[in-house]
Structure to design on (1330 residues):
């Protein structure tokens, strides 16, 4: 295997300048669309009005058309009477003329009849047979909107480049346009590469993973005002990739590839792409992290962009480098509609100097306008970290860290993304899922994010201020009590309150009928039993390890010796559901989980204990309206009723929703 | 004509509560869509993963798979050599096992071969034939992403009610979903009513205006996540309206009507609608301004909403009352995605107490995050005021005014709307249009709004702080100079600077060949000559009135006497183009305008004077980046070249772009 070492790295600016030497981002064409299909499109021409709006003098009120001089001096005490000679409805062409001493009744929007120069509102008149009594005078032009006063024939009503919102559609309709010339949506061909990449909807073969990037990039392409075309998946083979790129260049205005094409294939590919057209690959290697192997080419006037393979990296590089180019090709301004937010960093972030660092973050809402940004843990290739990442921050080449407390600009991944109102971290529980559902039902505008980190993770998150609420069920062996000893141990007894959550039955989850006859921890040491563990730091894991320690004492051995005996101790499930799924699908014989996940999955449950699942909240956050909503729902009768109904083995008690440790002072 | 007087007005809250008694806004159904069509849709179900992600233990780097214990103690000084027994590419199922003393070369993303428990990055190795030299030790699990570590089988990966952005599409793709269950888009039938309303695209008959509301409401309906269905236009006739509503109820989940149905027709209609289904009309009359005649009905479970006829009113009432209902029916949160901005009011606004006031405003950007809101002049039925309105502010029933300087919340009409970076008010000029185009070309993110108010309007706007820049060409007879005397007269000589714009040739615009033989102002007094005037406050109007005054002196008569002689003096065109159009289409014989509009419209031009068109800017705004962009473009060679080329009769001079009055101190 020969490996490509990237020799020439350039800055983002140099990369783009190199691109602009060969390609100018501009609209790819125009097309006519009907007004009802034009929402969100971009006007490709200046629009001048061919008519006057309104096209005729019209009444702006229901009333009587008069000659103003007929009513000089009219008031409550000295009303003046005119003879009503007709009625004018809206949309009707006046057939008679108002002459001195006469009046015509007129509806809002109707044409002003010849002769009349003012309209008196019906409120200031009385009608007796054919006589209309006026209690007010008027002046020429009152309550008349003259022809062209709104838009005059020949006037420029809308400028080229305007994005059409409902407001603009209304203005175009006002001058009678049924169709409008807009910029064509550029077509963007999308290709995923890699021998391991499999299409969606089909079962995976060994060694395969699903194609994530095609869907992500397609979404971004659409949000940039372009139309995606899927080229499918190319195996990691220069000819196959080249064929797909060729196909893309005939079908589309831009080709975007993604995936970690192996270095060997890349070398060959670069030369071959050059033969497709000129100038070929112009940038391969950018001083950016992640995104080093980002590729930019131009082939006979059409750009070719190569993104990194990991979804978070692909998303950041696309948003930062390529979205502005696609937007300009769609006739949109490059970045103005991109959503940005100011947020305070709660932790120091070390960066790689000499490269521009794009750091994915998730956001915590402190108040309506105040946000906190936290780095989304970047495990290599993790899609979960992407699913929490709201956007990214940029650290320039000349800094080596971003400081705690610094205010940073977060580039949101989509204008559809807004930070959650409540972030709950900690132990996974179906009861928390229910709370989130009930909040959504009663307060659909309140957006709850749940991140499963285990109880200890929740505790640490509250200490750092990374979460609003931590769900925890940490059993302390010494005191035989839940949670409070841990809070004290973390020095949080002054700054937080613990709110009573609910009670959960915890036990072994085994297949229906308990085929392996598991009744105690001791059975897990058997060679025919495969265990599925929970993640380190979870309350369930801590409880299980305590069971093991007790057993070690009884058996006169050590914890570590016992661990070695348990098959699957090192396999860590993040959620109770995942434990149940492992047992259900035969990947494990037993795991420790709460009762409802066993019941829902048709599995058997062997109870071990009843535990307290409580919520830890920073005192400073108790005044946040969203936290009060959380507490309101936790205390609600609906939650008390639904919790055991939906989740057998979970139930509220008389203290649910009350502060059981710390005071709200 | 009998007229309906609205007897029972209710508050917005009471109106909605009344609605909720008969109708609960909730999704109308679910449908399966493929992931590539799912952007922006709302998940209708909880999604659990049926697979582990990744599905197998994989390498996160390019390197060598080893048994960690083989490399204990390895470093630069004491490298350890292992035998390479194979290579593993991504997507390939390992065929051989790593045993002690051996290693397998492995690509990023490839499956970890049996036996191996760590991967060492290629950077820390050297290869000599079949021998791999390791300069670093490792530990079990290093550079390995284990199966299910990202998403575990059985895990809840996405909650019901999630709106799908590109990020969410990526997560769904990660677990292999090709299709996803989303809420159906509710169908909303849209009906415009009124005898005067004509469909788009066809010439208007006398007394007709185009259907504006169908397009506006259709846009809003789409932005609320629903699908519009056009029912067309119903004449103001109870049977016709009823037939269309019936049609809408069979085709759609909601029916929205708009238009000023005449009071007489309404009375009949209300009773007939009740016969379509139960309970019929439940609210007709809301304590809201505008929007008093807003109508709410429910017919056998389907809501019927009646909006006011004027577009601005319809837009505000829809946004405030009905958009949240439609959004909930689409599965979206009622208001969270609605864009709001804080802005400072620059003028006091008097409101109608006892009703909730919705006040359309336009926004001025003071800095990135700081905005100023100004009421959009609400001429009855004006579509122009709607075209400038960015959103509206709400004044509650118990206030009678909003004070100057108050910070208000502006509800934007669309998430696509963002406040302009530069607002130019004042005299209409094609040169300003050119400046705007050149700014857009060089700085596509800078959004320029031009509001034509005439020169005096611009001067007043700068005094009040309603505009960033005023374009003006005000001739002072006494001093025979432009602009500066007016600035002094307004007391702005200390707070503003005047920047030299350019020179314009001003004269009479007449039909080709000058058929009426017009050569001087005196000809305008002839009975066979029809004039088209400019709006009061425009520099052109002031210049024309000065010509008339001079003529009055010469002729020994008064200005007012002369005005009476001029046919069309009272018809006011807002723009030079509109003057040219009036002459071109024979509605007038002559008007006063700048040369380029005559040339462009194929008309003749009789020059009268050369005038200075300059720009007035508040000193405090000179530091705004957007103002500097404006000045940069004004001074640019491109503008100097394009101005006379595109607009014969307009040209820069040596001072263009320089401050000619006031100092930047």
């Amino acid at each position: 295997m020969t490996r490509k070492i990237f020799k020439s790295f350039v800055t983002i600016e140099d990369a783009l300048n190199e691109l602009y030497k060969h390609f100018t981002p501009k609209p790819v064409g125009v097309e006519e669309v009907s007004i009802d299909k034009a929402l969100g499109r971009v006007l490709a021409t200046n629009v001048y009005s061919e008519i006057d709006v309104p096209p005729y003098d019209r009444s702006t009120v229901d009333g009587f058309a008069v000659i103003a001089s007929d009513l000089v001096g009219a008031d409550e005490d000295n009303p003046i009477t005119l003879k009503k000679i007709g009625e004018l409805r809206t949309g009707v062409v006046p057939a008679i003329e108002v002459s001195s001493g006469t009046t015509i009744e007129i509806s809002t929007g109707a044409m002003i009849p010849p002769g009349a120069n003012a309209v008196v509102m019906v409120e200031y008149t009385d009608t007796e047979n054919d006589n209309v009594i006026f209690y007010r005078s008027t002046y020429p032009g009152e309550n008349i909107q003259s022809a062209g006063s709104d838009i005059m024939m020949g006037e420029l009503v809308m400028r080229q480049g305007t994005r059409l919102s409902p407001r603009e559609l209304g203005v175009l309709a006002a001058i009678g346009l049924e169709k409008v010339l807009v910029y064509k949506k550029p077509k963007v061909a999308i290709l995923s590469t890699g021998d391991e990449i499999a299409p969606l909807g089909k079962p995976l073969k060994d060694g395969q993973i699903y194609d994530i990037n095609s869907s992500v990039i397609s979404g971004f392409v659409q949000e940039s005002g372009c139309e995606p075309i899927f080229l499918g998946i190319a195996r990691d083979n220069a000819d196959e990739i080249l064929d797909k790129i060729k196909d893309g260049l005939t079908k589309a205005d831009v080709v975007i590839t993604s995936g970690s094409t192996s270095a060997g294939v890349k070398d060959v590919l670069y030369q071959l792409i050059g033969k497709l057209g000129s100038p070929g690959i112009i940038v391969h290697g950018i001083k950016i992290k992640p995104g080093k192997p980002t590729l930019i080419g131009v082939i006979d006037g059409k750009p070719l962009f190569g993104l990194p393979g990991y979804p978070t990296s692909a998303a950041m590089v696309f948003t930062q480098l390529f979205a502005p180019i696609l937007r300009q090709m769609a006739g949109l301004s490059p970045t103005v509609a991109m959503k940005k937010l100011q947020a305070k960093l709660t932790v120091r972030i070390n960066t790689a100097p000499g490269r521009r660092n794009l750091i994915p973050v998730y956001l915590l809402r402190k108040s309506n306008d105040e946000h906190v940004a936290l780095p989304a843990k970047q495990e290599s290739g993790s899609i979960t970290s992407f699913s929490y990442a709201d956007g990214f921050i940029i650290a320039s080449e000349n800094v080596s860290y971003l400081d705690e407390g610094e205010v940073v600009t977060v580039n949101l991944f989509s204008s559809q993304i807004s930070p959650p109102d409540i972030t709950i971290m900690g132990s996974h529980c179906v009861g928390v899922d229910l709370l989130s559902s009930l909040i959504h039902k009663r307060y659909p505008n309140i957006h709850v994010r749940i991140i499963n980190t285990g109880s200890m993770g929740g505790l640490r998150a509250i200490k750092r201020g990374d979460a609003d609420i931590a769900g925890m069920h940490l059993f302390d062996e010494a005191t035989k009590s839940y949670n409070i000893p841990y809070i004290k141990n973390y020095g949080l007894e002054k700054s937080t309150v613990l709110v009573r959550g609910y009670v959960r039955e915890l036990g072994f989850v085994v297949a229906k009928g308990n085929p392996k006859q598991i009744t105690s921890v001791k059975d897990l040491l058997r060679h025919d039993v495969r265990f599925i563990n929970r993640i380190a730091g979870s309350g369930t894991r801590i409880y299980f390890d305590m069971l093991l320690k007790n057993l070690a004492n009884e058996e006169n051995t050590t914890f570590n010796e016992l661990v070695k005996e348990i098959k699957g101790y090192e396999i860590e499930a993040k959620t109770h559901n995942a434990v149940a799924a492992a047992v259900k699908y035969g990947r494990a014989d037993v795991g420790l989980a709460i009762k409802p996940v066993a019941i829902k999955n048709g599995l058997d449950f062997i109870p071990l204990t009843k535990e307290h699942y409580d919520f830890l909240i920073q005192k400073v956050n108790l005044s946040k309206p969203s936290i009060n909503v959380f507490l309101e729902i936790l205390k609600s009768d609906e939650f008390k009723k639904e919790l055991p109904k939906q989740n057998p083995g979970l139930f509220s008690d008389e203290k649910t929703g009350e502060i059981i440790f710390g005071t709200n002072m």
Q: What stands out?
A: Residues 1-7 of chain B have pLDDT under 50 and may be disordered.
